[in-house]
Amino acid sequence: MKSHYRIGFFLLLAPLGLWLALLVVIPHIDMLTISLRDRVAPREYVFSFVNYQEFFSEPLYWNTFVRTATMSITATVLTLLIAFPIAYYIAKVLRGRSKRLLFLMCLIPFWVSELVRTYGWMILLRETGVVSKILVWAGILDKPVEMLYNDAAIMTGLIYTSLLFMVVPLVTTLDSLDDSLIEASYDLGGNGFSTLREIVIPHAMPGIVSGSIVVFMLTLGNYLTPNLLGGKDSLWFTEQIYTQFITRFNWELGAAFGFLLLLLSSVIVFGGLKLSRQTLSEALK
Fold it and tell me: What is the mean pLDDT of residues 10-23?
């Protein structure tokens, strides 16, 4: 009986194991191998750290690397600050149909692809776009202004693209918070801030951490939004990876960049878990 149970257990795990092995583990091992070789002649390679040395010796590369990490962390924090009140309103204030309606309104923009959503922002923020025309009409601006191709446009697009991935885990976590705990806090003399700090945020911490991890990884690895809203001078690290692989056919340097991005993502996620005193298993509940 036990042997049948074990066979069934391994058969159920087989698709997940194959998916992880074929699409995650093997490609990353191959990427690491490619990054640790140097081409000395056509189809001839030697083991070398030259690709990593080139990354640290070229200011453009590591400046772009640091800029991407900084903007990704900033976008994650801003997304959390925007998503938390929305999630709290959905989970603890609204009831019945209005709750489902607002949650559905958060989902609707994600029925279309990221490309369409980004082009929507380009239509709004371009010099002849809706926002510029309204500001001129209201007398705030003297003439139309180009609002694309800067960091503010990139940040707006990144937050909008990632917002749902922060709202969903927060709503799920806050839904499980017993309303009587909030009422007890007020009955014992607490105010809104102390209730938020002592009751709501500690309870929502797994949702905050899991949402932040997802948003940070999506933002760090985003290619489309920074390039379309930031233009050719967006200086996003995934653009450097694309350039090495597709434009320059320098797979060795591109693989090194990809592996460095993976390390950066892992280190920052690990640091975030330590700062929040959460474990990965708690965040993924």
Answer: 87
